[in-house]
Design goal:
The protein has 5 helices and 15 strands. It is α+β, with helices and mostly antiparallel strands.
Length: about 260
């Protein structure tokens, strides 16, 4: 086997082997909610016990900003009812999924989010993670995210992956020609993410997403479901916590914690 094939195989298998090693039988379960409470400082909490005041950038209140609100000023994409933030993206009209963010500010830390797919649309999904608009060389400051779809859960490093401006430009050149991305770039980008099966339902769930060094971890209802290591996760300043919602999601409670 040629060395290039060995390198490619190593790149693709490394995330899977790391995950298996850390989740071997008998290993102590991770409790990242406890880690945040015990080691961290609570930066922000919102239980959404108020009313939305309008459709604009700051209409949600309590420091949240809806980056896509002004694209469709006559459509309310976020409302609060009985302590629940109900997001209904006007994706088609706005030309972008609903994007809502709040100040964060940490190197290591994370968020606790209570959420629910209400079952109003068949394509309900939730992307949440961290942004630094001050970082150079990365499209829109996108750093890293966890994405929950109907059938899977993905952790992804955008900073050193698909949102790196060099890689983004190179990918677009091939997309414009309707050609496949070169094998070397495709292999590199695959090392920047990890996907595991997950079946969505319409129940409430407690989600914890944390960064610690170069590792991103996601837990649901106290159980670690996915973790991955990549250089972009270690970015020293997660300035914003961000939701990206393509259709409908309900949010009951949000806490942002800083460990360092």
């Amino acid at each position: 086997m040629k060395p290039s094939f060995l390198l490619l195989a190593a790149l693709l298998l490394a995330p899977l082997l790391a995950f298996a090693a850390d989740t071997k039988p008998g290993a102590a379960p991770r409790d990242d909610a406890a880690w945040l409470r015990d080691k961290g400082t609570l930066l922000f909490h919102d239980a959404f016990e108020r009313a939305v005041t309008g459709n604009g950038l700051k209409g949600i209140g309590n420091g949240w900003e809806s980056a896509t609100a002004d694209r469709v000023p006559k459509i309310r994409q976020a409302d609060i009812e009985s302590g629940i933030l109900k997001i209904a993206s006007a994706t088609k009209e706005a030309g972008h999924a609903a994007h809502i963010h709040h100040d964060a500010g940490f190197a290591d830390g994370g968020v606790l989010v209570r959420f629910k797919f209400p079952g109003l649309n068949k394509d309900e999904a939730l992307q949440l993670g961290f942004v630094d608009r001050e970082v150079k060389g990365v499209h829109a400051g996108h750093l890293c995210y966890g994405t929950l779809s109907r059938s899977s859960l993905t952790l992804i490093d955008h900073k050193t992956g698909v949102m790196n401006l060099e890689f983004r430009k190179r990918r677009q050149e091939y997309a414009d020609r309707k050609e496949k991305v070169p094998a070397d770039l495709d292999a590199l980008l695959k090392t920047k993410q990890a996907t595991v099966p997950w079946k969505a339902d319409n129940a409430w769930h407690d989600l914890v997403l944390v960064t610690e060094g170069d590792e991103l971890r996601l837990s649901l209802d106290g159980k670690l479901l996915a973790h991955h290591r990549s250089a972009g996760f270690a970015h020293p300043m997660k300035r914003w916590f961000s939701f990206l919602v393509p259709s409908t999601v309900w949010i009951d409670d949000v806490k942002i914690w800083k460990v360092k």
